[in-house]
Amino acid sequence: MEENTLDTAQPDESVEPIEAAVVADTADTGHEETSAVAELIEQLSEPEPDMPTSTDAATEAPAQLDDDILKTLTSERAKERVKGFIAENRRLTEDMSALRQMVESSSATPEDLAWCLEYIRIARSGSEQDKRLAMEKLRDQYEWLAREVGEPTQSYSPLDAHPDLKAQIEDMRLAPELALEVARARRLRQVHEQERQSVVAQRNAHAQLQEQVASAVHSAEQYFATRQGEMDFKPKMARIAAHFADSANMQAFVSTYTAEQWLPALKLMYDSMGSLTAEKPRAQPIRSRPPAQGSPSTQGMDTRDMLSAHLDAMGI
Fold first, then answer.
1. Do 188 and 23 touch, CB atoms closer than 8 A?
2. Helices 262-271 and 247-256: crossing angle, nearest 10°?
3. Rounded Cα–Cα distance for residues 294 and 313 (Å)
4. Among the four residues 98, 180, 274, 277, which has the most C-beta atoms within 10 Å?
5. Are 271 and 263 in contact (CB under 8 A)?
6. How far is residue 300's CA from residue 289's CA, in Å, rounded to a whole number?
7. Are 6 and 175 in contact (CB under 8 A)?
8. What angle in degrees, to the nearest 10, is found between the helix axes of 233-244 and 262-271?
9. Angle of the 176-225 helix axis to the 303-314 helix axis, nearest 10
């Protein structure tokens, strides 16, 4: 009588050997190019040498305000009480800042935080019903994590999505342990393929956006080149430049109009000014380097920064 055990069974040839091992990453996301936003900001405007930075101002403002409040008090008792309030306020501010940083670093959504707080409440409740509800919540999380890592549970098996592997186990042609490894490898390969497709889709979308922006800017250049002979061309363009120098205006513009609508919107801005007399050119900030020549690099920029870079290259 022949022995037919799983220990001597060999994997079926239909199961690729590579699937039984950990699959290497198939997505080569590449290195993201450094954003040119910092360079653009430096070209457009540089602060005065003695001008304090916004960070310094934000740090010094509360302390200065506290000192100003204390100077208005004449009673030593009142000063001590206010100093206590100030110290407590600073402590609470630091605690809130630390909490905010912790939440941001965890990538938790408001729903995630609500779930955690609700679980803590019912887990520490004196009610047996609440504790059982907390157990159900943990079971749900365990099931979700098991599916994420391909670990079988009482209600889930990674082999459910692979009937070919289950059939080979039933025919004693594949060991269950090896079948699980194959299923995990297949799932890992699928995840990597989905990530690769997502990266490719994002790159294609960004490349398409760059083309739309470049086309819109080229159309604007051609149009305004036909109006350079007008006497009030320079003052009008100076006003447009001053308008877009405000980042809020730039953000509002790109949020309101698509790239195809930029030229009509710029035409409307230009024509709505009416006739302007020539204005004295405004002094430009000292630049650490000459303005960029040719088409600027917009790799890694969002729509607002793309438009800003092109306008800067146009001298607007």
1. yes
2. 120
3. 7
4. 180
5. no
6. 22
7. yes
8. 120
9. 30
Residue type, 307: L
Cα 150 to its chain centre, rounded Å, is: 29
Structure tokens at 171: 């025919």
User: Which has the closest alpha carbon to 223: 266, 260, 261, 254?
Assistant: 266
pLDDT at residue 53 in the model: 46
**CA 180 vs CA 4, 8, 22, 25: distances in Å:** 21, 18, 12, 20
| CA atoms within 13 A of residue 32's CA, in its CB half-sphere | 10
Each residue of 132-164: pLDDT tens digit?
999 999 999 998 888 888 888 888 888 888 889
Q: From CA 178, how far away is CA 154, in angstroms rounded?
A: 19
Sign of CA dihedral 201, 206, 209, 214: negative
Nearest to 304 by CA among 245, 235, 242: 245
Work out the end-to-end distance of the chain between its first and last CA atoms, rounded to an integer number of angstroms.
91
Q: What is the mean pLDDT of each run of 10 residues along the chain (316 residues)?
A: 44 46 38 42 43 46 70 79 84 87 85 91 92 92 86 84 88 89 88 91 90 88 90 89 87 88 89 69 50 52 61 55
Residue written as token pair 């409040």:
69
DSSP 86-105: HHHHHHHHHHHHHHHHHHHH
Q: How far is CA 278 from CA 98, 144, 172, 231, 238, in A?
A: 54, 68, 90, 7, 10
Smallest CA-to-CA distance from 146 within 162, 157, 159, 135 is with 157
pLDDT at res. 277: 60
Q: What are phi and psi of 126, to 5 degrees?
A: -80, -5
Q: Which two tokens stand for residue 273?
A: 């000014």
pLDDT of residue 36: 46
Question: Which residue bears the tokens 């120098």?
Answer: 245
Enter the tokens of residue 268. Answer: 């409307």
